[in-house]
Amino acid sequence: MPPTLIDITGQWQYLLAEMVLVGGGIVAMIVDLLLPRRNKSVVGYFSLAIVLAAITVVAVQMGRHVGGYLQFQYVGATGWKNTVVVDLFAQLMSLIMLVGALFVLVMDVYDWRGRQGYEGESYYLILFATTGALLMANSADLITLFIGMELLSLPSYVLAGLHRQNVKSNEAGLKYFLYGGLATAAILYGMSFLYGLSGTTDLVAMPSAIASQLPNERLFFDIAFAFLLLGLGFKMAVVPFHMWAPDVYEGAPTPVTAYLSVVSKVAGFAMATRVLIVPFLPVVAESTTAAHTGLPLVTILAIVAVLSMLGGNAAALRQRNAKRLFAYSSIAQAGYVLVGLAAMPGQSAATAGSMVFYLAVYALMNVGAFVTIEWVTRAAGDESLAAFAGLGRRSPWMAFAFTVCLLSLGGFPITAGFWGKFFLFSFAVNAQLSWLAYAGMVLSVISFVYYFRFIRQMYFVRPATAETLQVDAGNTVVLALCTVGVLFFGIVPNVLMGPAQAVGASFLSMLNAVP
Amino acid sequence: MDGLLAVSWLVPFLPLLAFALLTLFGSRLGQGAAWLSILFTGVAAVLAVLLLSPASTYLQDQQHPYQWGFSWLQIGSVTVSLGVSLTGLNLLMLPIVSVIALLVQVYAVGYMHGDARYPRFFAYMSLFTGSMLALVVSPNFLQLYIFWEMVGLCSYLLIGFWYQRSQAAKAAKKAFIVTRIGDVGLLVAIFLIFAATGSFEFSAVIQAVQSRQLGGGFVTAIALLIFLGAAGKSAQFPLHVWLPDAMEGPTPVSALIHAATMVAAGVYLVALTFPIFAASAAAMQVVAWIGAISAFLAATIALAQTDFKRVIAYSTISQLGYMMLGLGVGSITAGMFHLTTHAVFKALLFLAVGAVIHEADTQELDEVSGLWGKMKITAITFFIGALALSGIPPFAGFWSKDGILAAVVSQGNWGLAVLGFLTVLLTAFYIWRIGFRLFFGEQRAPHGYEKVHEAPLMMMVPMGLLALGAIGTGFFGGNISRLLGSGAVPEAGWGVAILATVLALVGIGAAFLTYLRPGFGEAAVARLLGPVWIAFKRKYWIDEGYQAGVVRPTLALAAGVRQADGNIIDTAVESVGAAPGAIGEGVARAQTGRAQTYLAVGTIAVVLLVIVSVIGGSR
Amino acid sequence: MIGLGPYVALGAVLFAIGAYGALTRHNPIAVLMCIEMMLNAANINFVAFSSFGGSIDGQIFVIFSLVVAACEAATGLALVLGVYRNRDIQEIGDMHLLKW
């Protein structure tokens, strides 16, 4: 069925969440121009409502089992082209990113209190960036994917440099932009080869088109893979494409750091699944059967995963700045998820589920951690670990919530983080990547050392001031939701793992779908 | 009686419930927090004891353990359940854990009295008790691993309970990280098992091993990885470094977690997965030798310590070494029997020195002595514990240690046997050294000898009960072997028993001669020790020679080992931790702050990939 | 008739020159220009593949990527100006407050 121009019950409903976000962003932009300076937080509350609306859209669509492709036809052509796909994978990833964006917006509204600057901008830029992030998970086409990626990236550069009077924020913005520019160019160049080899930008048609080109054009697939890896490695922040992350995380405003470490990273993994895994599945399958001459793609992903887990965890050991430490921690966390990505060609169905599970849990625990970091560092005017001294006595519940998030990040049982790692590693074992799983287990031990530095500060060190930390209602709710979520999914993981495992099936249907 | 079995899940659940209640309402309960915790643990303990008879009947009738559980999660086609499995092994563990937990909590009512975080302490103790019981009843590796980590967390929380002391915080972290190194071994083993058998259930795994479904080298690897986890938890060489530091925690914690129960979890794990070990001769050798070496080394170190709580900590390592040795030479019964008696007498020793610490407010041998005049009951219970530890018949330690030594001798490995017997001598020496120096000699205490008196009644009652246990549990060897169904307690006739007893008496005598003779009236000692003292009196003339020839070299050796322990082994363990630090230094230093360096690193990686693919493609 | 090869080679050379410039130029504006050059290298590829492969998608992609490149340039210039306004720096390498 050809889509009519705007018919949101037909195919256009697959873009409904994005339309809500973009529309809301545009309205927010106009409202921001009209509002006096002291009332900018209205834009923030409006943006919160928009994200909630988008969450509702996705949730309702999931409840009604809406799924399918947004297609169009060139004038004069015969075949239908896919641009956007709504499948369970896209929906779950969208939910994770939207919830992450929602939490970050709550942090952001607080962060602007008592600050001068571009407050309204920060809200609608988050809306636009989140639209891009959703597109990265929804795309069924290289062009849509590229636009989505840029729609996420460009506002993110600005967000990182938004504190214009702060030299660190300036520097973070420009560094992020420079690395991002290189990454964009590399991705585009890699995509040009994917297009050249398959003759299409349609991601659904691509695997079979690529399979027909094998093994003759193997070299160009490898080159495309290498360039895509650079670009996506940047978005996911994995070693050796991680180097922007510590600087940007440290320099950017804390809510933006949270946004980069959660929404942007999750979007990176969504896109990596769409463009770094699915089109290359035939390549990997071919190299396991035919005489193997090209790059061992799975091994490369595995090596990047090990480097990230090792480098991230090891470098975090010597950090004294909480945000910078969490940059390295996020690099290591991305390494764990990469274990899932590397296992995907071997065991795509189940592993995609374990990756979605981990990313959902990661979003909760990392946002929870950043909410605490935001409040503690802001109150102390100090971003070092010492700012956390005695938090256990100053704000016992906040310290408890942070402890739960830290234990979960480390992968301690009874928290969701344990199951996340457990599922990732057990599927890696199933996908004949046992060594990678064992490396992950060993390397994750290191992380306890630096996560426990926070716990030590909170419970074992005397506070510099005895006054309790007053947290506003919004952030309290966010922190409570994150903590309860981490504990809930830690005790009954099946509630989340059930739907996440169904992702695999929807994923395979995309591979087999004939447009 | 099946009704009782059906509620067996209450045993771990009740203390966990107590933890939840105490976390939520603890601060409002104040001193009542302790009684809530004790009530729940008490009911669990009663239930654990009552379960013994119906569950073992069930075990004999049905030929498989009673199982109860519900499906917890689904991984692909594999279902993992959360529940209870009642085997002979954990039917033994349940009463040990719950009863000692109960007694220690009662003791803690007195010991922790007036502490600002009193309800928190009991909340943690309940969490520990529940986790330990849930660990013990696990039907599968996953549940075991989860609660294995939970007890580690409780240990961390309780070692660091007095966080005002900087040493406590350091010790807590050290304990957590060092045991985690072992835990990774266990986790890897679990994954290997899962990869090979597709199951986490103990029964399935053991079946796979016994049906020779798993290969020899593979089984050895799994066994050694499991043993790594066990060695971390049970503080076996070279992962023992955390346990002495863990003595920074309150003494009831040391008694319950770091002597009687949690540290025994490693031994329990080896016993539980014994068929895996039994399938690999190499793994058994490793277990036996690590056990023997830990037993011997820790005993020598214990000789040279001046902190008397640490001496008992090293003693724990040494005794856990014995248990591992017993398992390593093939006797589950001997190892588990010693676990049982040790749990009782070591808890007793800790509670007794805890009473001294509580009253005299020091852990240094040099600062306190001559307490006999003030703390007679404490002294008597301590000496009962010491008799049990040094293995003097008819006290509990004699029977179980005799079983282990008999198993070693009957296996005929003389190296192990020599270490085992030497340790008997050293054990008797170090524990009596503590006893003699604490309770006899010059009457002094840091805050004035006159202020010292017996501990409160709440502390004395558990000590008294444990003292009875330290006399009595040795006679239950037959019951334990029937319960486990793993063969009788090994017997090697009178030879071993007499040799061990004589060695222990020599050790006691040497301690006596070394520490009591100069400052103490012979008559009083004679009255106290009677025939033992006379036996040594005849050899009085070799005292000087003994001092020069045996005691001094032994002390020198001990000091040397202590030195090595402090420097070499600690350094070695820490250098495992230093490697990531160095790598981290490198990774972070590469972060020069110059944006183009960052771009260059990423670009070079891609260029390398392209070069490799071109070379690879042109082959 | 020129085949596909030379076009792809031109794209590769342009990409390499752009990458070299991006890594070595000291002036942030020059780096920005080099990145644009790399994007255009990819665009040449798209047009060439489209022209030889027969599908129109590649050329449409180029239109999108040109728009994106323009947005990127605008963002980049704003960020460079932001840094120059607050700090007296000559080249990118001077900007290293954030490190290690």
Structure described in brief:
Chain A is mainly α. Chain A has helices at 16-34, 41-63, 88-111, 119-138, 142-160, 167-198, 206-213, 218-236, 244-251, 254-277, 281-289, 297-316, 322-343, 348-380, 391-394, 396-410, 416-430, 434-460, 473-491, 494-512; strands at residues 68-72, 81-86.
**Largest interface: which pair?**
A-B, 71 and 59 residues
* Alpha plus pi helix count of chain A: 20
What is the strand arrangement across the widest sheet of chain A?
1-2
* Parts with pLDDT < 50 across at least 5 consecutive residues of chain A: none
This entry's quaternary arrangement is heterotrimer
Let me know the number of strands of chain A. Answer: 2
User: Could you tell me how far the N terminus lies from the C terminus of chain A, measured between alpha carbons in angstroms?
Assistant: 12 Å
**Proportion of helical residues of chain A:** over 70%
On the 0 to 100 scale, the average pLDDT of chain A is 86
Q: Radius of gyration of chain A from the CA trace? A: 22 Å
Strand content of chain C: under 5%
Instruction: Count up the domains of chain C.
Output: 1
Major sheet characteristics of chain C: none
Find the CATH topology of chain C: Helix Hairpins
Q: Under the CATH scheme, which class of chain C?
A: Mainly Alpha
User: Rg of chain C to the nearest angstrom?
Assistant: 17 Å
Instruction: Using the alpha-carbon principal axes, give the shape of chain C.
Output: elongated
* CATH architecture classification name of chain C: Orthogonal Bundle
Could you give the distance between the termini of chain C?
54 Å
Helix- and strand-based class of chain A? mainly alpha
Percent strand of chain A equals under 5%
